[in-house]
């Protein structure tokens, strides 16, 4: 087996372990029942938002430190943060302690940039596409296995929701051991460049001299990527779409709890199988979009409109089964569109800029998510109930979908006329 493939599999196994979190499909249920007993308002408006604020504050710092420390220490920090989160969920009970737990959770999410960019410093550029797929598939597989296992253990009364934390802790502990075994990195994209490192910009080879500072190289990469209008347009969608996806995923369980409390058709203990189904269908959707030829802009516009309609329906839903289906469809639509967006951006930037563009888009996603969280959840905002929040998210997705659908119409019209004013027909 080739060395690059071994390295890719090695880091992918870490991705599987970090995503092995059987407790996740039931986290809101765990926090709102004994022994935790937090109210829905405390969970939504005081506990969960802390991780969003933390992640925003750390994203840029973590990105730069990741490159400076050459990845592996931040991967280890990701695993340690995961472990700390589970320890606190098991042994801590106060609201303050849960807020501190969310700080570690936010740090864990911020550190994921090291996982997704680590492999680019270990393999040749010609393998970037396949190793990127390894990273994504490993995470999806980890979520799938943990969700299915959680559902089986709950259904057969082997473990309770509370006891799933111990199983998640085992996965977190194993990920720490595996992270320490990862091969070290000798060079990185900015702070520790290899002598032969060459940047490719606009199809022209440009050797970056050693006298240039890290800031100059970062600025050069930033300008090269985001002065490309096509890349900018896709990055805007990725930022907006991912913001609402993160918000949706953070509070979907709260909506399920609200529906369940008012009487419905299914037990809320089916969260695990729903998460598994969502993972399988999303993976299938991502695979199919890779082999089907379709207009990217029409796809994004229509599916985003579909997401908006789904959220508006879910905001008024009284049947848990329908809310579960909405969750699966919304998530699948997002992963299809995110895959298309990532591909379109990657095709139009140098390979060396992947990590930077990923980090910048993630940062602005978190800025928007933080603003949205403050507006809808915090005491300085409107403190909306969960159903009203979904109405806000749904209306926002409709606006985004409408704008991109109009853009697709303009692009199609201009192509038919033999030129493109809107410049998204690329």
Describe what is shown at a glance.
This protein is mostly helical and 426 residues long. It has 15 helices and two strands.
**Can you summarize the main beta sheet?**
2 strands, antiparallel
Number of domains: 2
On the 0-100 scale, what is the average pLDDT? Answer: 87
Instruction: Output the number of helix runs.
Output: 15
Q: In one word, what is the shape?
A: globular
Number of strands: 2
Radius of gyration: 22 Å
- Relative helix content: over 70%
Strand proportion, as a percent range, falls in under 5%
Q: Give the termini separation.
A: 38 Å
Low-confidence stretches: 198-211, 420-426
CATH architecture identity of the largest domain: Up-down Bundle
Architecture overview:
This protein is an all-alpha fold and 426 residues long. The protein folds into two domains: 1-191, Up-down Bundle (Growth Hormone, Chain: A); 214-425, MFS general substrate transporter like domains (Growth Hormone, Chain: A, Up-down Bundle), CATH 1.20.1250.20. It is built from 15 helices and two strands. The chain has helices spanning 3-18, 27-32, 40-68, 72-91, 95-110, 112-118, 128-155, 164-180, 214-226, 229-261, 271-291, 296-315, 320-347, 354-376, 386-416; strands at residues 199-201, 204-206. The radius of gyration is 22 Å and the shape is globular. The model is unreliable at 198-211 and 420-426 (pLDDT under 50). This is Thiamine transporter 1.
């Amino acid at each position: 087996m080739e060395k690059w493939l071994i390295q890719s599999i090695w880091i992918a196994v870490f991705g599987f372990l970090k995503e092995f979190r059987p407790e996740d499909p039931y986290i809101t249920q765990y926090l709102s029942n004994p022994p935790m007993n937090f109210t829905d308002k405390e969970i939504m408006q005081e506990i969960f938002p802390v991780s969003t604020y933390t992640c925003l504050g750390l994203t840029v710092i973590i990105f730069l430190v990741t490159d400076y420390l050459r990845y592996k220490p931040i991967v280890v920090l990701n695993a340690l943060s995961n472990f700390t989160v589970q320890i606190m969920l098991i042994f801590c009970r106060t609201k303050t302690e849960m807020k501190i737990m969310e700080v570690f959770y936010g740090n864990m999410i911020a550190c994921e940039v090291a996982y997704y960019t680590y492999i680019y410093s270990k393999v040749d550029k010609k393998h970037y596409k396949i190793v990127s797929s390894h990273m994504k598939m490993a995470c999806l597989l980890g979520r799938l296995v943990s969700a299915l296992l959680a559902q089986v253990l709950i259904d057969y009364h082997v473990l309770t929701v509370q006891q799933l934390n111990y199983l998640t802790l085992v996965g977190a502990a194993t990920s720490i051991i595996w992270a320490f075994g990862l091969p070290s990195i000798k060079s990185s994209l900015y702070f520790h460049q290899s002598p032969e490192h060459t940047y490719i910009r606009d199809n022209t080879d440009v050797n970056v001299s050693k006298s240039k500072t890290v800031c100059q190289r970062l600025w050069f990469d930033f300008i090269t990527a985001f002065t490309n209008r096509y890349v900018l347009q896709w990055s805007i969608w990725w930022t907006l779409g991912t913001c609402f996806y993160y918000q949706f995923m953070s509070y979907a369980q709260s909506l399920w709890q609200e529906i369940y409390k008012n009487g419905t058709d299914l037990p809320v203990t089916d969260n695990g199988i729903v998460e598994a189904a969502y993972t399988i269908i999303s993976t299938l959707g991502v695979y199919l979009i890779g082999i089907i030829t379709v207009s990217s802009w029409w796809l994004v516009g229509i599916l985003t409109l579909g997401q908006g309609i789904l959220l508006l329906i879910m905001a008024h839903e009284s049947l848990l089964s329908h809310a579960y289906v909405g969750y699966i469809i919304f998530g699948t639509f997002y992963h299809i569109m995110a895959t298309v967006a990532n591909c379109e951006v990657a095709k139009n930037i140098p390979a060396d800029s992947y990590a930077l563009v990923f980090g910048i888009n993630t940062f602005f996603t978190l800025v928007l998510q933080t603003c949205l969280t403050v507006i809808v959840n915090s005491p300085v905002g409107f403190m909306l109930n969960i159903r009203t929040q979904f109405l806000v998210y749904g209306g926002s997705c409709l606006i985004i979908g409408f704008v991109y659908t109009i853009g697709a119409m303009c692009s199609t019209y201009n192509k038919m006329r033999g030129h493109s004013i809107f410049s998204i027909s690329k």
